[in-house]
Each structure stands twice: as C-alpha cells, then as structure tokens.
Amino acid sequence: MFLFRRQFTTLKRSIRQPKFQRPMEDIAEAPQLPLKRTQNNSKMIRFNLKKLRQLNGSDKMDLMRDYIMTKSTYEAAYVYEIIIHNGFANRLQYVDHHNLFHLLISNAIENKKVILKIHQQLLENEYEPSEHYWNEFLVCCTKWNDIEYTKDTIQYMLDKKLGIYSTTWSLVFTFFDKQTSIAALNHAAELWKIMNDTLPISRPSKSTLLSIMSIYTKLGNVNGCQQVYEQSENELPLLYMSQLKRINEEEDLIWKFETRIHFFNAYLHCFSKHHTLSETHQLYLNFYNQGFLKSPEIKQSSIDSQKKKKVQSNLNTFHILFRKLIHFPIETSQDKTLLIEHTKLYWSHLNSLNITPDYLIYEQMITLQRLSNTASVSMVEEWYRLAITSLNIQEISLKRQALDSSYLMALIHYQDFTKAIALIKDMKNHNRRMPNKRIFENLLDQLKIRKDIDNSHFIIELCKDIGIFEEYDYFKQLESLSQ
Predict the structure, then answer these.
(1) Handedness of CA 340, 341, 342, 345 (dihedral sign)
(2) Are 360 and 403 in contact (CB under 8 A)?
(3) Where are the alpha helices (DSSP H) in 329-436?
(4) Could you tell me which of 422, 421, 440, 325 has the C-alpha nearest to residue 374?
(5) pLDDT for the residue 86
(6) 335, 283 contact by CB (below 8 A)
(7) 288-317 tens-digit pLDDT
(8) What is the reported pLDDT for 228?
C-alpha cells in the first residue's frame, strides 16, 4: 500500500492554477461498490459490474462510458475510481472526464470526492477545460461551502481571462453573503468591483444586486450600498427584459412592483442601521410619496395565492421602520413624542396601503406601545388577542412564543402581575414554549419587591423548570415564612 498525494506545479500568477492546499484523500485502497444503484437500461450495458475486476483496462473504460450514457451516476463514478486506482487514468480521453463531470454535478455535494478527482486529473494531464467547465466547477465550490476553493477558482478564471457567467456570479455572491468572516465579505466587495468592470459582459441579476447590498450592509458600507441601489434603479428595465416567464399583464405589474420594493428595502435596512431616525424617516417618505409602496391592482382570479403573497413585499418596509423605532433611544420628552408620532404614521400608512399585518408587525406594535407608555393594559391585550385570532396562529409555534414574550414584557412593564402569572400558567398548561430566561428574571425581581406570597408555590415550580435557583431559594423561603 502506498500513499498518493497531489502535487500541482506552481505557475506564474498570470497563468497560475488554483492552489488546493489540502491533499486529496488517499486512493490506494480500491473503491467499494456503490450502496446506491441507478435504474438504468441494462440492455445498453455491455458488462456486468460484479465482474469488473476480471475486465481489462479498455473494457473498464467502455463500461464507464456505458454508464455515463445511461446516466448511471453511482456506477459510472465507481468504475472511474477503479480506473484511477488501477493506473489507467492516462488512457482516458478528455471527453471521458468531461462527460462524467457533467453527470456528477447534478448532485455536487454527494459526489464531491469524485468531482475533485476528475478536476485533479484534468489539471495533472495539462488539459485545458472549457469556460463552461470552469463555471460549473465554480458553482460546485459554492455548493461545498468551501471558501478557499471558491477564491482560488475565481482567481484562476480571472487570470486566464475566462468569462464568468451572470448566473455563476449570482451564486458566488449568494455564497459570500452567507459568510461571517469580514475578510470574506471584503473579498466579495472587491469581486463586485471586478464584475462591474466587465459590464456589459457580466450583467448583474436581481439576486446578485441584492446579495451585494446585503454584503455592504454587513460591512457597514452605506455609500457602497447606496451606489448599488442607484445602479439597481438603472438596471430595472434590463432586469425586466430578462424575465422570460411572464404570463400576463398582472404578473408584469407584480414583478416590477416587488423588484423595486426589494431593492428599496435592502437599502433602507442598511441606511437605518447607520443613520438617525429622522434621516431614515425622510428616506422612507421620499419613497412613499412617489407611490412606489402602493400595490398594483390585480384581479383576484388572475394569480394564485402564492403570487398574491408577493404583492405584500411592502410589508417588509414596515418591519424595518418599526424595528428602527424599537431601537430608538428615548432620552427626552421630545424623543417620546417623536416615537409616538412615527408609530401612528407608519400604522396609518400600513392600513391605507391595504397591507395585512403579520405576527411580527403585531409583536412590534405591542413592544412600541410598551416603550411609548401610551396604551393601557387592556389595549395591549387587545393587540395580543387580535394577532392570535386574525392570523389564526397555532398554539405551539415560534410565532406564538414571540407574541407571548412581547405581551408578557408589556404586562411586567405595566406591573399587572396577576395577568402575567395567568399568562405563564396558560403557556405551561398548553405546553407552549416559554419566553427566555431574561424576561422571567425581570418578572421575579418585581415579584420579590412585592413579596408575592399568593403565587409562591407556582413560582417555585417555575424557577425549578427554568433553572433559576437563586430565585427558587428565595421564594421557597418566602413560602415557608408564610406557613
């Protein structure tokens, strides 16, 4: 048994091959028969797979080609690995590697090992894969969530002046948008500049533009996000022309409406994180006054329910605005007045646009009522009940948990501990998810001040369930004193 390690010849940067620093898996041991089998046309297979080891090199290659022709993925990959293991790789033609590669990429994650072996063979035998091959391989790298393979492959394609398709760029930027490393996000921003320099060859898609705006938001680059937003406004006609699945005029209107809203929401999200409430409010008003938030009028029977949901893309605009209000620091009476006025205005706009609130809007409104201290307990309870009944929220769900938490925090704020305890008992009786520990600690601090003896037994059991043992000891002692 011998060890096999890949080695790549280092070329000049202008023509260098992608450097894959991690060694490939050792392939000294013969591959095992695939556990999965493909339903193929056995009449087109000239040899029996079980007798593979009795075949000579030429017959094995013919068998692999038969499997490729019949799209027998697992069998073709297995025979290919056997051919490599037996040292017949130099007898394969470029088209053999190419055809097997394109068969395997339909399930790139599961077939990663064999795809990398094919890629290794192409480079070691000094083949020059096509531009299309490199685009497909780059897509595989993103599916593997491999940052180094992705960066090296892109650099190689740029050095060799190979075109990267718009669809490939879209997947690349979606991949980078999912990264948490600042270095990876900065690398994506640099790639965006390179892509822009290649226009109109690589025309950005809607997905690409939104991913870049998201990346700039994570980097805190408001100017960069604004530039992409302005570019998206110019790109709208071209993006519209690229849509090939339009069926009728209503769908055209929906697409134009939601695309513009998506770009605006991406920019508004970035802008709101780094600008004041007044500046964010002014940006919103400029967009609102142009009528861009008004949904297109469509016939109820012209589109299905899934497409009707798209017409509510403007709902996310109000998610962003209400979130900005929730994080607005209230330091003076003027700040409080501003919070109240903006909350009322946004709610009136939401209603005038005939937008149906979702659970998040109701949760945000309950929180804003608490922060502004303008509503009574009964009004907050009305918001809570309205959300549950109008949206038909299931008893055990994350949505119900979010609403329960917001309502409980409001009850604690208004010091209505009778209803707060009743809510927790209801949650426990119906096996609903409990709010987080911090909310309970806030409630228990208030109950300690009041020395609530009536509910001490229930609170003791609750502390035990949640794991707040300091409070458990306190209320246990309180209960014993009461007896």
Answers:
(1) positive
(2) no
(3) 333-352, 359-372, 377-391, 398-413, 417-429
(4) 325
(5) 86
(6) no
(7) 999 999 888 766 544 555 555 545 788 999
(8) 95
Please count the CA atoms within 13 angstroms of the CA of 385 that sit on its side-chain side.
6
Measured in residues, the chain has a length of: 483
Contact call for residues 328 and 364 (beta carbons, < 8 A): no
For residue 118, give the nearest of 154, 151, 83 by alpha carbon. Answer: 83
Q: Is 223 exposed, middle or buried (0-12, 13-18, 19+ CB in 10 A)?
A: exposed
Please write the tens of the pLDDT for every residue from 53-97. Answer: 778 888 888 888 888 988 889 889 988 998 898 888 888 999 999
Q: Are 136 and 105 spatial neighbours (Cβ–Cβ below 8 Å)?
A: yes
pLDDT in tens, 155-179: 999 999 898 998 999 999 999 999 9
Q: Which of 381, 384, 272 is nearest to 317 (CA)?
A: 272
Buried (b) or exposed (e) across 121-148, using 16+ Cβ within 10 A? bbbeeeeebeeebbbbbbbbbbbbebbe
- Single out the residue of 276, 278, 358 nearest to residue 317, CA to CA: 358
Residue 10: CB atoms within 10 Å: 9
CA 254 to CA 193: how far, in whole Å?
A: 31
Asked if 100 and 77 touch (Cβ cutoff 8 Å), the reply is yes
